[in-house]
Amino acid sequence: MSDTKHTEMVEPTATSAVSADTTKTLRDEPRGRTGWARILLGRDAIMIYLLIATIVIAMISIPRFASPVTVGFLLLDVIPVLLIAMPMTLIIITGEIDLSVASIAGLTSALMGVLWQAGWDIGVVLALGLVVGVLAGAFNGFLVAVVGLPSLAVTIGTLALFRGLALVVIGDNAVANFPPELTAFFTSKIGATGIPTVMIGVLIIVVAFGVILHFTPFGRGLYALGFSTEAARFVGIHVARSKFWLYVASGGVSALAGIYWTLRYSSARSDNASGLELAVIAAVLLGGVSIFGGKGSIPGVVAGVLLIGTINYALRLGRVSDVVLIIVTGTLLIASVVAPSILDAVKRRRHDRRVRRELPQAQPSGSVSA
Amino acid sequence: MELFRTRTGRGTRTRRIATIAATAATIALIATGCAAGGGSESGGGSGTEGDQTITFIPKQLNNPYTDVVLGGGEEGAEAAGFASSAVVGPLDASASSQVSFINAETQAGTNVIVIAANDPDAVCSALEEARTGGAKIVAFDSDTNPDCRDVFISQVVAKEVALIQVELISEQIGGAGEIAILSATANATNQNEWIKFMEEELASNPDYADIELVAKVYGDDDDTKSFQEAQGLMQAYPNLKGIISPTTVGIAATARYLSTSEYKGQVALTGLGLPNEMRPFVKDGTVTEFALWDPAQLGYVAAFAGKALADGDLTGEVGETFEAGDLGEREIGEGGIVIVGPPTVFNAENIDDYDF
C-alpha cells in the first residue's frame, strides 16, 4: 500500500508547484520506509509491541498470571473471536461488513444439537453444521455481491434471521450430551505447554488467510477493491465474485466457530455466541484494519485479538469487575482509532506550513491562473 | 483525494511514536487497575484453614435480586470465617459467559466457588477443572448439572414456588380466564422448572380447569425487553386476564407497563418480585399480591455450606447437616439439595415490613 502512495505522491507535488521552479523539491519528502525498518516500525509491529508490553505488565502485576494455565484458558477464550476475525478482516478490507457471523455460529450450534439428539452420527452432524454455515454465508454473499445490496443492511437482517432460525430449530432446549471424548478433545492441551490442541487447526486457518490476503493476487485485489470498487473493476478484479467468496468463507469459518463453541462448552443452544460479532469487529479494528476499507493486515489483527483477550483475562484474574473491563476495551478501541487521526491532522498542519515557507513564489494568485 | 494521500504519506515516524505514547498511556491506566484489583486478592490461594477464600459467581452483575443474594452471601462469608470473599460475573446472562470467570477462579486457587448457573451443562467442564484443582462447588439459585457441584442451595422447593404463583393468579382473576407467563431466558434452569410445575398444576387441578395458559414469553431478564414483551402480550391477547412473571426483572417491568396503561387494575399480575421494587405498584393497585423468599438467606446459607465443605465437615451426602449461622441447622436432602425456607407472600398490608 505504501508503494502506491509513493507513486501518487510525485504528481501533486509537481502540479502545485507548476508556476514555480519545478526543479526544486521539498526537503524531507517522504522516502518511504523499506526493508526491516518498515517491518519493525509498522502498525502491525506496534500492535505486537503493545501485546508483549501488556503480557509483561500482567505477568509482573497479576499474581499467577505467569503460568501455562493462563495460556490454555486465554487461548480457549479467544479462539472463536480469532477464527471469525480472519474472514472479517478480509471483508472489512473490501469496505464491506458481516454482522451475521455470531448468528451463523448460533445456528450451527442449534442444528448440531438437534441432529445429535435425533441420533445422527457425530461426523455427519459436524459436516452438516459446516454446510449450513457455508450456505448461510452464500446467502449473504448472494444478496451483497450479486443483488448488490449494502452489506450493513443485509447482514443486520441475517443477524436476526439466522438467530431466529436457530430458535426455530432448537427452541428453548439445550443439548449437552455430546460424546465426552470429543468435548474433552476440544479442551485438551498439548502436553505441558498449556496450548489447546485445537490451536493447531486455528493456526492453519490463520496462516491460510494470511497467505491469501498478503501473497495472492486475489488478496492484493481486495485492497484495491476497498479503495475504489470502480477502479478495481477497471483493472480486472472480479468484484462480485471476490465479495461472494468472502462471505462464503465468513459463513464457513463462523460455522467452525459455532462447532468449537458447542463442543467446548458442551452445550448446544440457540443463544450461543450471541454478541460475538461486536467483539470480533472491535478486535479487527484495534488490529489496524480501516472500517472504510483498503487498509489492514492479518498479523495486526491477530495481535489485536490477543491484546483484547490478554487484557480481559488479566483483569478477570485480578478480579476487576466486568464493568471496568468493557470500559477499558472501549477506551482502547477509541484510542487506537482516534490517535492516528489526530496525528494526521497535526502532521497536515505542519506540512501546510512548510509548503508555504518553502514555496513563497507559488502563492500569488495571478501566477496560478496564468 | 490525491492531495489527501500526499499528506498521509509523511511524517509517519512522529505519528507512530505518538500512537505508541497514546496507547502506552492507556495500558498504564489498565495496569494500575490490575495492580489495585490484584493486590487486594493476592492473599488468597491454596488456603489452609483460616485463610480460605470464597467467590460468588452470579448469573449476571447489576441485577437487583442478585445484589440482595450476594449481600447475604458476603455477610455469610464473613460470619462463616472466610479470609476473603469476592464477587465476579458476566454482564450478560448468557450460557457460556460464566466459564472464563470459573477458569480465572481455578487459577486463583479459590477454595469455594458459589455459582448460579446460566446453563447447567455449559459450566460443567470448567467446574470439573476447578474441583480437580481442589475447589468446592456450591450451586445456588439456579442449579448446575448435579455431577458438577457438591451441593445446591435452593430457595424453596421448586414445586412450592410454582404452586403459590398459580394460586395467587387464580385468586386474582377469579379462577377463570386466559393467563400468560413472562419468564427470564428460555434456558434458565429454575424458570423452566417452575413453568413445568405450573403447567402440570393447571392441567391436573380441577380448580384451575377454567384457566387457560395462552402464551409463554421471554424477557431475557432485560428490563426493556421484558417491558416490550408485556406490551406485546396485551396486544396479542386482548382477553388476557392475568400474567405470571416468575422473575424479579420481568415482574417489575410488567408492573411498570401495566401501571401506565389502560390495563391497570384490569389485568392481574403476580409472580416473584422484590418488595422494594414492587412497593409503588402494590400501593397504586397495579399488583395485589406477589411472592418471594428472602434472597439474602440464600447467599447466607450458601456461604456456610461452602465453609463446611472446605473444612471437610461436609461431603455432600444426603442426610448430612451443617450449621448455617443465625439461621440454624440445615440438612442436605435428596439430590444434594439444601432448602432455605418457604416463600413469603407480599401485599399492601405487609410489604412495608420488608426491606430488600
Which keywords apply here?
heterodimer; A: mainly alpha; 2 domains; disordered N terminus; B: 356 residues; Rossmann fold; 8-stranded mixed beta sheet; 4-stranded parallel beta sheet; 14 strands
What does this structure look like?
Chain A: Keywords: Cell inner membrane, Cell membrane, Membrane, Transmembrane, Transmembrane helix, Transport. Chain A: Residues 13-23 have a biased composition (Polar residues). Chain A: Pfam families: BPD_transp_2. Chain A: The chain crosses the membrane at residues 46-66, 72-92, 99-116, 122-145, 152-170, 190-213, 244-263, 275-293, 300-317, 323-346. Chain A: Its main location: membrane. Chain B: It comes from Agromyces humatus. By secondary structure, chain A is an all-alpha fold. Chain A has two domains: 71-319, no CATH class; 323-355. Chain A is 73% helix and 0% strand. Chain A has helices at 2-16, 35-41, 43-61, 68-93, 101-117, 122-146, 151-170, 180-187, 199-215, 217-227, 229-234, 239-264, 276-286, 298-317, 322-358, 365-369. In chain A, helix 4 packs across helix 14 (298-317), helix 5 (101-117) crosses helix 12 and helix 6 packs antiparallel against helix 7 (151-170). The model of chain A is unreliable at 1-20 and 366-370 (pLDDT under 50). Chain B folds into two domains: 53-155 and 295-340, 3-Layer(aba) Sandwich (Rossmann fold); 158-292, Response regulator (Rossmann fold, 3-Layer(aba) Sandwich). In chain B, helix 3 packs parallel to helix 11 (295-310), helix 4 packs parallel to helix 5 and helix 6 (158-173) packs across helix 7 (189-204). Chain B has an eight-stranded mixed beta sheet with strand order 2-1-3-4-5-13-12-11, sandwiched between helices. A four-stranded parallel beta sheet of chain B has the order 7-6-8-9, sandwiched between helices. A two-stranded antiparallel sheet of chain B has the order 10-14. Chain B has 356 residues and is an alpha/beta fold. In chain B, strand 3 (112-115), helix 5 and strand 4 form a beta-alpha-beta unit. The model of chain B is unreliable at 1-11 and 29-48 (pLDDT under 50). The relative contact order of chain B is 0.13. At the A-B interface, helix 1, helix 3, helix 4, helix 14 and helix 15 of A face helix 1, helix 2 and helix 4 of B.
